[in-house]
Each structure stands twice: as C-alpha cells, then as structure tokens.
Amino acid sequence: MSRIFLYFLAITWALVTVPAIAVIERRIERQFDVPMDAVLKVDTFDGAVRITEVAEGKTIDVVVVQTAEVDTEAAMDALLASLELSMDQRNGAVTLTARQRKRVGWSWHTWAPVSLVYEIKVPRRCDVQVDTLTGGIVIGSLEGSVVLNSESGDIFTGEINGPVTARSHTGRVAITAASGPIIASTLTGALTVGRATDHTRLSSRGGYIELQQASGEVVVRGSGSDAGVGFVSPVRHPADIMLSGGDLSLVLETNSACTLNLRSSLFGKVAVADELPLKVVGDGDRRSRLKATLNGGGPVIVARASGGNVILRGVEPFPSARTEQGNE
After folding, report:
1. CB-CB neighbours of 282 under 10 Å
2. Pairing of strands 209-214, 191-196
3. Per the domain annotation, does 123 fall within a domain?
4. pLDDT tens for residues 228-269?
C-alpha cells in the first residue's frame, strides 16, 4: 500500500469521524414608527452594524441576527441568557443596546457568548450614533449627524448631508463625502475621505491618510503615517498639515490661488513634480523648504513632514457642474 494512498485514507477517515460544527441562528425583528427627524443609537459590545436608507421611509426597521456554534437549542438558550439585548424608543429616538452579563467564576466565558449582526433600515433623514467594540460599521447615504466608533472594525459611509465623526483604533475608516465638518481618526488603520466641503480634521498613528478633494479648512496630523491631500479650486480656507515620520503628497489644481509654506525633514526634500505658476517668496527656495505663492497667493497652506519628504503636484481643474451643464 503506497504512502499516498495511506495519506488520503487518513484524511478521509478524519473527515468522516470528526463531527461537524453546528451553527444555530436566532433572529429578532422590530419596527418603530419615527418622526420626520429620526434618531438611531446603537451601543453594542459586539457585532457588525449595517444601516441603509429608505428614501421615503417613516419607520426604523431592525433585524438582529444572533448566531453561535452549538449543537442544541437548549445550549443556545443558555448562551443567550448571558446576553442583555434591549430595543426601545423614547422621545422619538430608537436605542439598541447589547451587553454581556458577567459573573465571577471560571465557568463563564470572557468572550462574546453569541455573534451579533445588525441590519437596520432608516429614513434618509436620520441622525445616527453607533458604538461597537469588535464589529465593522457600514452606513448608506443619509441626511443628518453621523457619529461612529469602533474599537477594531472598519467604518464606511456613503455621502452624508451633515457632519461626520468616525473613530476606529485598529480598523480602517472611509468616508465617501460629507457636507458638514468631518472629524476622523485611526490608530493603525488607513483613513480615506473622498469629498470634504467643510472643516476637516484627520489624524492617524501609522495608517495612511488620504483626503482626495478638500474645499474647506483642513487639519491633518500623522505619526508614522504617509499622507496625500488634494485641494479643489478655488482655495478659500487655510490648511495645517503636520506629519512625523512620513511622506506627504499635495495636489493642487493649476488655477488655484494660495500661499504655500512647505517644509520637509533636514535630510528630506520638497519637490515640485509638475509645472505650476509659483513665485518664490524670500529665501523659501531651498532643498527642504518652499515658500511661494500660486497665482498671486491666497489662503495659507502650511505643511510639515518631519522625517519625510513633501511632493507638490499640479493637475488640470476638474470641470464644474455648471460648465458641464452649459456644454450639454
């Protein structure tokens, strides 16, 4: 009998004799009638949260999926006994809370007794606040204030007509767009913002920071982080960007009018990668420093890359919506 045959025989015996892991699922469904300015709050020790908008919706529809690797319904009931899950509505605000009961004794698990997944539908006009320890958060396109916190999960939002605050320690944060102020931070995860029209403050300790199109005031702080920041013309607000131990890429439309104060580390460099109508100010034309005006000057963009380089790039202006409509 060959070794290969014995090998496959052993694998087949293992697959037949090892019992399959059973998974039991329980679902809880609730619907809440809400006023025009709806409010949703989710506070959970575990679980992924997905919130989608309904254009003409007048209710908040909640589905909570609870799963566990157990063999019997009785075992599932025992695990659920250590879970405190509440859903209520007060003064028009719908609040979902999940807690784990803890007792002294070696027989109680220190991890989540069951896995939770929240599937929630809300009216398009809705204020949302989500806090979760171990799950990711996905939010659709809403009108309202959005506040999201996750210890280890990723965070994603669609286009938000309002302010956004998003924080994750080890997960990534991605914000498609927001009309209001944006405050976002990570510890080790990447941080990406598409379009920011108001004050924007981004910070990370090790994750890549990207702000694609900024038309409001910008503040960026990075420690051990590379960053890329793009500005939309006309530049109407200042920017304050400081990195420690990372490289910085700045992108400006060629018709932008602003004043630049850029500095790299002592052994780094400030480089202009494309043709831009820059006018150097004073002694600002050095290897590691650039002080200049672009198209006559304007709001000041201050950028420091301690321990890294600064690269300035120019791009042709994107056609405005008015221009596109005029060409139709």
Report:
1. 7
2. parallel
3. no
4. 999 999 999 999 999 999 999 999 999 999 999 999 988 889
Phi, psi values for residue 323, rounded to 5°: -65, -45
Kind of pairing between the strands at 248-253 and 126-132: unpaired
Domain that holds residue 279: 181-328
Residue 280: name the closest of 312, 305, 251, 307 by CA: 312
CB contact burial 78-107 (16+ within 10 A = b; e otherwise): ebeebbeeebeeeeebbebebebeeeeeee
Give me the DSSP letters along 269-282: -EEE-S---EEEEE
**Are 123 and 54 within 8 A, CB to CB?**
yes
Is the pTM higher than 0.90? no
pLDDT digits (tens, 9 = 90+) for 29-50: 999 999 999 999 999 988 899 9
Residue 325, pLDDT > 90, answer no
Q: Within a domain: residue 284?
A: yes
- The closest alpha carbon to 153, from 79, 80, 64, 44, belongs to 44
The phi, psi pair for 9, rounded to 5°, reads: -65, -40
Give CA–CA dist 291/277, Å, rounded.
13
Structural domain includes residue 244? yes
> Mean pLDDT across the stretch 216-225?
96
